[in-house]
Amino acid sequence: MVRMSAEERRESVIRAAMSEFARGGYHGTSTEAIAKRVGVSQPYLFRLFPGKKAIFLAVAERCLQEMRRVFEESSEGLHGEEALRAMAEAYARLITEQPERLQMQLQTYVTVAAAEAAGDHEFGEMVRKGWMELWDTVHLPLGGDIGETTSFMAYGMLINTLAGMGFPPEHRIWEGLYLSARVKRNPDDAS
Amino acid sequence: MVRMSAEERRESVIRAAMSEFARGGYHGTSTEAIAKRVGVSQPYLFRLFPGKKAIFLAVAERCLQEMRRVFEESSEGLHGEEALRAMAEAYARLITEQPERLQMQLQTYVTVAAAEAAGDHEFGEMVRKGWMELWDTVHLPLGGDIGETTSFMAYGMLINTLAGMGFPPEHRIWEGLYLSARVKRNPDDAS
DNA sequence: GTAGTTAGTGATTGAGTACTAACTTACGTC
DNA sequence: GACGTAAGTTAGTACTCAATCACTAACTAC
Description:
2 copies of one chain form a homodimer.
Chain A: H1 6-24, H2 31-38, H3 45-48, H4 52-74, H5 80-97, H6 99-117, H7 121-139, H8 146-165, H9 175-185
Chain A binds a DNA duplex through helix 3.
DNA-binding region (chains A, B): 30-49
InterPro entries (chains A, B): Homeodomain-like_sf, HTH-type_TetR-like_transc_reg, HTH_TetR
Protein name (chains A, B): TetR/AcrR family transcriptional regulator
């Protein structure tokens, strides 16, 4: 048994919960599964967090923050075309290296609606705020071009979905995205 | 008590389950909730379907089929720019009129990954096949332009996500999409 | 009208789940 | 080295949920 400070434990709970929630979503993940992955007893989670919902919220928030940080760091000092390419590459790397982060993103979006319908707007506000920050983080290095930013986010969402559905990288469905990347890098190729 | 043929009942179960699964996802929806909405006893669902999973599968399949039909019918006889506009409008109408269909789509994508991870590839194959059909259905009237089709799907996914997160229609996040629609309709405006 | 079939229900079961309460073990500190 | 505190556990509760079983009510064909 390795003892940790409550803060450190909370941290590892968030990481473990991210993996679990990414796979099973909110309702498909038991607190026991999270506890097992952390290596701690299940009731102890309720000392670290007030409830299951709070864990999910913490994970969702963390996920958005880190996604933002990826875009921020990858585009640092770059502008326009170069920033776009750098962010796209960073995103692609993130997806291939940590696919669960991608799944967690989808889970977050899906869970928001249920929460809103159930009258819980706290979760929705947090996610929308996080998304706006993400949007602005991308918006700035792209020179404030709204169309470009929207398009970047749109392709990102398509990638999320296709990857989530389990299309293998060599599937023809990806062709249009590779194509668009090429076009983006060399606009003269566009017809 | 209104008696129906098993086939008719299955049909109303699918419709009811679509609403329920759209809100709660697979694990967040109880068979009792579905049965209540249908107006039938919970155990009877298991006469009509072999299990809960089968109901979800039927709903997901139906959802993809109907989405495909919307694109097919709206673009009938049209090509290129006109077809794109018609499909976009049909999609927008669908979303505002039946938001649950949109949510169900997201739920489907999210659930696939869990099924795949659990070793159940039947669901994944069905969804990927359905998506490919959807893709081809859009691809054809767009003149076989891969980039255009991919872009269309990407914006669709972004719309799904933003709507799912509960951004109100007047929120500035939508601006880029309205903009892109304008550009698409009148390419000369694009810089 | 009665025999066979199909639609549908009530009661139940067994597994799982979020969360609580009471207890125990390790750590720092004076 | 005792004492207070913070980390962590074991046992248990109240509840939900998918699925089964045995049964009843309605339609249909003869």
